[in-house]
């Protein structure tokens, strides 16, 4: 161990070789015996794949990929008729987005294991995944937003999930939005949306703050003593609209924006909000029918924090801050100026005093700017290069990722002393400590999600998986235990004890509860019906046959809908369905559920269909035929199972 | 198929299999008597599971028959016909004359263990070659299904419950 520490210390802040400083018994400490389970679920954003992945810790094993904002060839999400509305937006169907951050639901500041929220960065949306079924059950589009990056972050009782804009843009009607780009200062605005989450998890936009034009990067809710406030990092307070890498890095300080959302609630109660026209989709998956509906919403309540005083304040923060993270007590707010050589730590108590005393250094776009020194607890000096994100262990320590110097730096929140450094491979982005963003971190492990992989694994051509490293943080020194590849390009991830999720995981859907209008709940209900040019096949599947498995009387010009009900009532027995030439791909049907594949035959003949999920010893026999006749044919519609004709 | 593994593990423990972890059973005598009990139960043709005795009544309970029919149509009819024709699984005609009511209900509610340990269930698997799926039927629902089978036997075979006294 001493040797390991020595190696890591001697590598300084720029590890260039793949020789990891891992400890001797690392393999044993991440080994999860065959047949046993991991200690934590890690819900990991997939970045540009638009998905989440579920990773077990400490093993690093990928347990599942959850489709959220992207169509998913594994289970037909976004392809089946039932799930397509989930990906509907005011711009129409968007099959692939960019998911950056995860927030797990909380009660009293602690994980409660109910839901995982994720953001679509490109076409702004927030999704909710039910941790009982691990399915995406709701997606809410965010109007007046562009680059939904500072999202979804959550309050300590899941009162609100926030979504804010990375790109300010002109808002309003067509005439107000059609303006020259170089009128940024006058016309461009940011928005911060507070999404209310009800007891069932359903989301609705409670209000939207319309802010000066700038970029919001990340956010964290206050907790404990700072509950009722929300903190957002900002950059581009220069209000640049071209060559931002230079022009948005001019000022010595940007801001952390402190939002008093309880104050906003007071204004709304007093009728100060302004209902504004907007167009955004709200998509909900029904648990019993498995049918998603998409509703187009028409207005949103907006508040102007320049006019309505005391909702927002700016705290100066050095050099384009990226992460803003609140410690478990709610007292300390850590700003990570990604271009700064220090980490400022603000005190909530001092901030409140400064606001009360109106200890302001001026205004920015009509909003008061608190004096930096007055809100400051202190600065972590020379932490490393490129601080991005900070997580906490619940023992008074903070862990900050250093993108440029590729390391994790452990420091004391109270004394601001650097306590330890561990190299990462390479260019670390987000960190994830189980319970790290909550009031009660579990603090056993830390995962570094890296942006660059290079030589860590066997090469696979120009495109590589992203790398992650798992560290044991239970002792004074961080110990590298494991290096594992990831799905997509993870940004933020949250880890939660398995005990909070595992017991609630449902194993199958009850046939009795299936309310799908085209369900065939039992083979006796299997049938084929024609409605004009539409042919609806009410099909059942069970090991190992479909019913019906012989269908005739379909004609060119028909649209055939296979509504397949999986009659199994046991865990881990999905059936698949595929038919040649289907432009909507395939479907996978969970036990007790019904899913629909639309198929438009394009030629005459007999076409085979089959089960795509290996279900039993007779899986290869799980198949059927459908006969397609010319449009003017008089072959009558009929269907059967097990019937044979005269020889 | 975690349920299956778990159930197999339990069964393995109970049977003191050579490859199992013997010390888990709680002493050799306890294991032996458990194994004996199991052997006895297999002999009496009641199968393995929580159903030890079933009280049958006459005439048939109509509400149970009705409920049993509904469950049959949803969860069983894809594989079992009401005649003696085997499709995926055996046809049901005459089943209450061949199998004791306890065996039937254990097969329905505890299928994975039955297929692994009960000689009659195993023989049927060899014949049909598709493992009967666990359809998560509750004991109460299984009893309703049994009532429906009794009614079906009266209709199709002209007699029922012939296996009770076997």
Automatic annotation (TrEMBL), chain B:
What Pfam families has UniProt attached to this entry? Cytochrom_C (PF00034)
Q: Which residues form the Cytochrome c domain?
A: 63-153
Do you know which InterPro entries this protein is assigned to?
A: Cyt_c-like_dom (IPR009056), Cyt_c-like_dom_sf (IPR036909)
The UniProt keyword set, sorted, is: Heme, Iron, Metal-binding
Give yes or no: UniProt keyword Cytoplasm. Answer: no
TM stretches of this protein: none
Protein name, entry field = Cytochrome c
